[in-house]
Automatic annotation (TrEMBL):
Residues 10-115 form the RWD domain. It holds the Pfam family RWD. The lineage of its organism: Eukaryota, Fungi, Fungi incertae sedis, Mucoromycota, Mortierellomycotina. One of its GO terms (biological process) is cellular response to stress. It comes from Linnemannia schmuckeri. Coiled coil: none annotated. Residues 122-144 are annotated as: Disordered. This is RWD domain-containing protein 1. InterPro entries: GIR2-like, RWD_dom, UBQ-conjugating_enzyme/RWD. Gene3D superfamilies: Ubiquitin Conjugating Enzyme.
Length: 240
């Protein structure tokens, strides 16, 4: 017949020796105590620690003790905390029939350390990925849009269409009203008398020399006569 009280007393003595600073007794009979679990790994200034609370049952170690885990320092998300509870429970179940608290403490410590390391590495990886994305975006802004065959072909097609449309509009204006684009001879003459005078430089020997001043006076007289004739016509029409 198993002497559960003796086995429990022997385990308590061993635990107090192994964890002199971490062990805290709550009750001697039945055995109830806490053990502070401090992981080997910490996350910078963020420290983590938890307490394993154990209470022996009458038939311990042939049955699992009552136990719970409470965070003393730091915070874990629900998923990480559940992972620790699951692994500690599995370690206790595997040790049924013998002292199991040491195994429970060791698994809790190792699992917490692993979670801290994984979370730290994940944050560092996310920070690196973010920095890489920002660097790539900055490089893209500096490079601008790369010209590919497809982009150039698309631009060339649009450009040719625009030029063709402008040419079509200009040709339409010339066809509808040539006067809008081509000035008359008189307009050219009145705009720049030098056009008429410059012709003299091209006259060959034997050509008749023309006095441009006489031509200009005749042009003025003719215009005046036209104006006078128009005044006479207007007078006759008004008397009728």
């Amino acid at each position: 017949m198993t002497d559960y009280k003796e086995e429990q007393a022997n385990e308590l003595e061993a635990l107090q020796s192994i964890y002199p600073d971490e062990y805290e007794e709550i009750s001697a009979d039945p055995g109830e105590f806490t053990i502070l679990v401090v992981p080997d790994e910490q996350d910078g200034d963020d420290t983590y620690a938890m307490k394993l609370h154990v209470k022996y049952t009458e038939t311990y170690p042939d049955t699992l003790p009552e136990f719970s885990i409470d965070m003393e320092e730091g915070e874990l998300d629900e998923e990480d905390f559940d992972t620790i509870m699951k692994k500690v429970t599995e370690a206790a179940e595997e040790a049924i029939g013998m002292g199991m608290v040491f195994s429970m403490v060791s698994i809790a410590k190792d699992t917490l350390s692993e979670i801290i390391v994984n979370n730290k590495e994940r944050r560092e990886r996310e920070a690196e990925e973010k920095a890489q994305r920002e660097l790539e975006e900055e490089e893209k802004r500096k490079e601008g849009t790369k010209v590919t065959v497809e982009l150039f072909t698309r631009w060339k097609t649009a450009f040719d269409a625009e030029m063709a449309e402008k040419e079509r509009i200009e040709k339409g204006l010339k066809k509808e009203d040539p006067k809008m684009l081509k000035p008359t001879g008189r307009q050219l003459f009145e705009r720049d008398h030098s056009l008429a005078k410059s012709d003299a430089t091209f006259m060959e020997e034997g050509d008749v020399d023309v006095d441009i001043a006489l031509f200009e006076r005749e042009l003025v007289i003719t215009d005046d006569e036209d104006d006078n004739e128009n005044d006479v016509l207007r007078s006759i029409r008004s008397s009728d």
